[in-house]
Amino acid sequence: MLSNTTFNLDRVLHDLKHYLPSQTPLKDFIHHNSLHAFQHMKFYDAIFKASEIFGYQATLPLDDFRKLYHIGRIREDILNRLLDEKFGKDNSELWKEKLLHHNYSTQQEPRINQLRAYWKKDRHIDLDNEVQPLLFRILSSYLDQGIAIHKFPLHEEGFLASIKLLESTSSSSFFKTKKVKQLLFEKSLTIEFLLERIVGNSNFYTQYLFDQQFSHRGWSGMVATLESRPDSLLDQRSISLQDLILFELLIELDVLTYRLGASFKPLCTTLELAPIDLFAPIVYSERHEVIKLWQDAFEWSYYDEMLAGIAKNITTKRTNTKEVKAHSFQALFCIDERECSLRTHVERTDTLAETFGCPGFFGVEFYFQAEHAKFYDKLCPAPVTPKYLIKEYNVSEKRKHDLFYSDKTHEMATGFLSALTFGFWAGFRLIKNLIQPKMAPAISNAFAHMNEQGKLTIENKHLDDIENGLQIGFTVSEMTQRVEALLRGIGLLSNFAPIIYVVAHGSSSANNPHHGAHDCGACSGRPGSVNARVFAAMANHHEVRNQLVERGIEIPEKTQFVGALHDTAADEIEFYDVADLNSENRTRHQQNEITFDKALDLNAKERSRRFASIDTKADLKTIRKAIKDRSVSLFEPRPELGHGTNTLCIVGSRQLSKGVFLDRRAFLNSYNVETDREGKFLTGVMAPLGPVCGGINLEYYFSRVDNYKLGAGTKLPHNVVGLFGVANSSDGDLRPGLPWQMIEVHDPVRLLIIVEHFPDVILKAIQSTPAMYEWYINEWVHLISINPDTHAMCYFKEGEFIPYQPIAKVVHAYRDVFTLIEESKEMETNHIVHATQENLPVYLYEEA
Amino acid sequence: MIAQFLPLFLGIPLSIFILCLLFPSTKEKLIASIAIWGTALQTILLLGYTIYWLTKARSVVDLKYFVFYKEADIEIFLDFYFDHITATFSLLGSFVTFLVLIFSKYYLHRDSGFKRFFSTVMLFFFAYNMTVFAGNFETLFIGWEFLGITSFLLISFYRDRYLPVKNSLKTISLYRLGDMCLILALWSTHHLWHKNITFLQLNNTEEVIKHIAEHPTAVTFLLLMLVVASVIKSGQFPFSSWVPRAMEGPTTSSAVFYGSLAIHIGAFLLLRTYTYWHPVALIQYVIISIGVLSALIASMIARVQSTVKTQIAYASVAQIGLIFIEIALGWHTLALVHCCGNALLRTYQLLVSPSVLGYKIHDQVFNFKPNNPKTSTPLSATWLNTMYMLSLKEWNMDMYLKKFLWMPFKKIGYLFSWMAHPIVMIAGFILLLPGFFLLRSTTLFNETVLSEIHILFAFIGMLFVLVAFTEKQNAIRGWLLIILSQSYVVLSIALLNDQYEYMEIALYVAGLLLAALLGILVLQQLKHKQTELHLNTFHGYLHEFPQHGFLFLIACLAFVGLPFTPTFIGLDLMYTHIDHEEYVLVSMITISFLVLELSVLRIYARLFLGPGKTKDTPIAYRSS
Fold first, then answer.
1. Is residue B400 in a domain?
2. Above 60 in pLDDT, residue A412?
3. Nearest CB to B618: which of A415, A441, A707?
4. Does B179 lie in the same domain as B39?
5. What residue in B sits closest to A237 (Cα-Cα)?
6. Fewer Cβ in 10 A, N or C end of chain A?
7. Mean pLDDT for the stretch of residues A716-721
8. How confident is the model over A326-385, as pLDDT tens digits?
């Protein structure tokens, strides 16, 4: 098939960019589906195919599924039901036997790198060994953002021009042979020419280039990403995948010429092989079927229990619901599953409080420029391109420095002085940090993203106020539009409390290159403090309030919005512009601050059960301090567990989930079906769920099942490369994905989205765009609808909703969640069988 | 009296190491506590001892502790020594180890190699103390060897990936070269002094000067060997490229090894033997030149590094270059302070190296200056860019080492690969018999014939091990080649000596034989399990057969004479039996021993380390 087609470089480049990892430099960590390139296929087809092409391990190993079954984590009734449904009662025993005991043969070699392996097999040359260390070092030096002191001499025309500049002005050379070096300067040099010389047969070119680029997918992916998004580096570089391939082929040719002589025969002229079509359909085997069943059984073992819990919760609620007339305060949180426990504790601490969940940029999209900053930070979901700029001013605090990171310590003379002075100080510093960890300039501090004392340019003064094509601030009508959209989305249209908190989140951590992955995903991997403050200011704006009244939303004059930031690692909270509160609200706020503080204590306790170094039964303040210390400890590779264990997303009223022990596993998006029975706002509410929540879930899924290839491996040996990535040691490939310490507690199951609405309305909403529908129809996430009137559950499968009846019978009820937390077992090792035991079953608790 | 305490400072680390081994790997807290409290105890006792020493004695403390072996003029014994250099290095060592262990307790939490890490670091700690407390070359050599092997184990800590394994082999190869230099120095001192000299005796300036005057060339050679050993261990020019590549283990182990302790051991050796080499002007010049070159070149390389750990590695190497100069100039207090300062600074910088990303990006947001190429004259641009490119290529150190150091061995191995043919090997084993016969009846031949025969045997032994070094087809064959080679080497030395004591050969062979048999046993068992035993790639069998892997490692270490088997003493003794004019013989035997360890560890690494192939579990990319 492939052999009949002629080699088309543009198409190969396009395909390569599609399949290579698309992680941006680490300063902005945006979660996404690691197999995004396969998203047009059904989930299982995609993972099996990706696995066969690239050798990824796409689910848990078969043995682990069996172990999970034996400890009861995969439920027998669920497995039986699945088998009955699929094969009928008669055949299900046979299949069960296969699932439990049959031995399946080893996976075959992946399709990738079959061709290029012949350099070693046939010519006894370890090409990767000879090319990669040099290539990686050149790439990292060229892209370096500020580690090297003596920098790469840049040429404005980009990578190849810079290499030429360096080669032409230096008496040394990257090349070992003169002939190949001269090729570099030839104007007519093309990739095809080099392939002709190295591979020799155009039928193999595509396969060769895939083999070559996937032998270092981290670097190639970074180059491809920088080509399409050069602005993801502060100090921008111009480089393209085409440049990289051309240069890599040149070095290969150089090594081959040097080792085999100038007249060596191209690889494919001596081999009797047929080219492999990497993307040809795969042959399904029984093993695939077995794995698929296990994965489904694993997922439904949890989903079913959760749905049973929710169903029971609703029936209990229906009998005894008291409508709260006057709320003490209301608080908007991010939908992030780490906020779900804090919301519960706030509600339990103050039963008159009400909480809501919505994506953490609070519907206000803009770039932010901190005072004196030379760059803008994007503060909204990654796919959105904002037209607005918010600038910070009136900041008096100066940024602190840390001499230990100074370049000077690495130079000869200044290094000598540093060793004699700082050297001994370093010893003290280390002891101090071990005994008493404290915030320091080198620790990423969520609260430092924006200065609390500073002011923001929120309102647009004049339409001509434009900087670099961005409008400074929002006009009144733009503000009104955003405030209205958010309030309608979450269904907060009446019954306003005197204070409404807008709580964003961020995360502080020390010694952690992946800190961005813990910040708010809806704010492009940054803390959402500015968004919270901007939204609060908009909603407090007098003119905006007036315009809102015109649109049917009447917020009492005494109601005030207050922005805040919750640090999910340290469990600290900071409120903004409290001075603007009226005197009554200020008193109320003082009371509420105590509520928040108590809730944070409890939240810290709930989190502490997963941290071996903290005694969950200890006094609340001790736990809280231990939690805070983690976020500033240099030696702590798990300042928090991030999105680990996420599996659920509930779109609907808080009443659905209030009372169910969610174990910080659920994204909670508030939505009031009563104010939107036709689902006008549902599409908007559901649009980000796939890319944001689904993206997070799938990145955790793939990093968990194959931490070596799709994840970043353990973070302990990581070496920071050029300030944009991490690699192992000095000669390693870049490691995209999540490190082991972030995913070890995660159960690799897909996201279950539960929406409280009528099936036909939901169907219309998800079918509004093909990109959105793809998530559901291709089963990258599961979808359940709960009928707002009958509370009947329907499961979305193959394009339609089918009724679903949970089979889990016993859902334990606990009066006190904390006994449960204190009694829960700590995992023995981080093997899935132990790790998953720590993930508690579903419980109901009685509301105090 | 004060000397009696010295063995305590080795006993504590050794006990911690053994205790750590005793508990199962799930007992994280227990293992960590033993290690942390043990090193804390060591630090406190050392501090107390040092203060006591400072107030009371202040003179060198020396203790002849334990005699391994004694005959006529040969006496092999453990000797401990304490002076201001020992005090500085041992205090620095236990303080840094203590801090890093606390750090690691949290940092390595739930790592599958938690126990392995702690026990290896404790073994390292023992080896480090053995080295700094050593009172003679033999004792120092024991510590030195263990330092090398623990380095190997910690660099290949993530042994299911390709790069750590490759780089651990690269590092141990150079370390081994240093070991052999030390062995040669040991051999020379023995012959030149006609006794096993202690460091205390080297303090006798008069005698040392007299001794140098007697054998100027031989002593210069010996001292050069000591310098080479130091240069390799401290990663000085031209042996620097292993240092950044050794940063494969967890950040904490990189910090303790290559940031601070292990890398300063070269400087320690120079300080320790200062009284010996100081009178020889040439050696002083050599050390100063190497120091200057290393400081200049390593700091140029550090300047172009774009990854944080390699930058710290080269910056550290550059400082040690300066330390070498300080030592040669006799500024020892400065050198000691410099060692401590540099060690602490680099340890800290390595430990916080992951923070660099957040800190510097933040810094860049506020203080970014676009990279404006300075308008410079073409000449200075050429100079700058040439330096840039040379430094980026690490001054081709790696390439030259490969080309001029390792390739010649490999080439000889390939040239004689026909010796791996079964028939040749069988012939080789059969030919050993007349060798033994010769041994029994040395009187039959006259001296010249005999000396030619033993050279021939040593040569054959060397060839066999070089062939083993390049063996690719079969691990068992490789192992047999190594045994064959060792048999020839032993015979060769045995033949040489007319008053050969059977006790010595027995000591050496006993250890060797056991190790050889154990190795064969493990390999045979693996073969029965239908695994592939070729040496073309890394198989990673440790994942499937952890016990086999462990036993084979023990066999390998015993085989190369790591000082926990009698082989070590045998090795030492055998060298003393080589006359000091036998340069041809000694170089062939040294090459054999050098390549022996490399071949043995290569077989271990190829079979048991690297990415595994078990089905259904994720396998690392080669490039990761």
1. no
2. yes
3. A707
4. yes
5. B371
6. N
7. 95
8. 899 999 999 999 999 999 999 999 999 999 999 999 999 999 999 999 999 999 998 889
Question: Average pLDDT of B242-261?
Answer: 90
Residue A244 neighbours by CB under 8 Å, 6+ apart: A139, A159, A219, A220, A223
Instruction: Please determine, for residue B451, whether its predicted confidence score (pLDDT) is greater than 80.
Output: no
Position B281 in a domain: yes
Query: Counting one residue from A and one from B, how many pairs have CB atoms under 8 Å apart?
Result: 340
- B352·A634 Cβ contact <8 A: yes
Question: Average pLDDT, stretch A3-30?
Answer: 88
pTM for this structure? Answer: 0.95
Side-by-side strand order, sheet with A843-845: A660-661, A843-845, A812-814
B337 touches chain A (CB under 8 A): yes
ipTM reported for the complex surpasses 0.85: yes
Rounded Cα gap, residues A758 and A676, in angstroms? 11
pLDDT in tens, B408-448: 999 999 999 898 888 888 888 888 877 777 666 656 566 67
Flag if B615 and A420 touch (Cβ within 8 Å).
no
Count Cβ atoms within 10 A of the Cβ of residue B447 and give its class: 0-12 exposed, 13-18 middle, 19 or more buried.
Answer: exposed
Out of A215, A426, A716, whose CB is closest to B348? A426
Angle CA(B182)–CA(B185)–CA(B188) in degrees, nearest 5? 155
Judged by CB atoms closer than 8 Å, whether chains meet at B615 and A107 is answered as: yes
Q: For residue A707, give Cα distances in angstroms to A34, A58, A640, A744, B618.
A: 12, 10, 19, 10, 7
How many Å lie between the alpha carbon of A59 and the closest alpha carbon of chain B? 9
pLDDT in tens, A295-336: 999 999 999 999 999 998 888 776 655 666 789 999 999 999
What integer pLDDT is reported at residue A4 of this predicted model? Answer: 44
Name the residue among B355, B382, B623 with its Cβ closest to that of A733: B623
The last residue of a domain, from among B355, B382, B403? B355
Residues B339, B423 share a domain: no
Contact A613 B109 (CB under 8 A): yes
Give B 484-523 residues with CB within 8 A of chain A. Answer: none
Domain count, chain B: 2
Instruction: Give the tokens for residue A153.
Output: 């001499």
Q: At B10, give phi and psi (nearest 5°).
A: -100, -30
Domain span holding position B132: 2-355
* B450 compared with A271, residue with greater pLDDT: A271
CB contact under 8 Å between B352 and A511, yes or no, is yes
Chain A residues whose beta carbon lies within 8 Å of the beta carbon of residue B170: none
Mutate to test the interface with B, among A719, A828, A831 (most CBs of B within 10 A): A719
Find how far residue A91's CA is from the centre of its chain.
41
Residues A501 and A331: beta-carbon distance below 8 Å:
yes
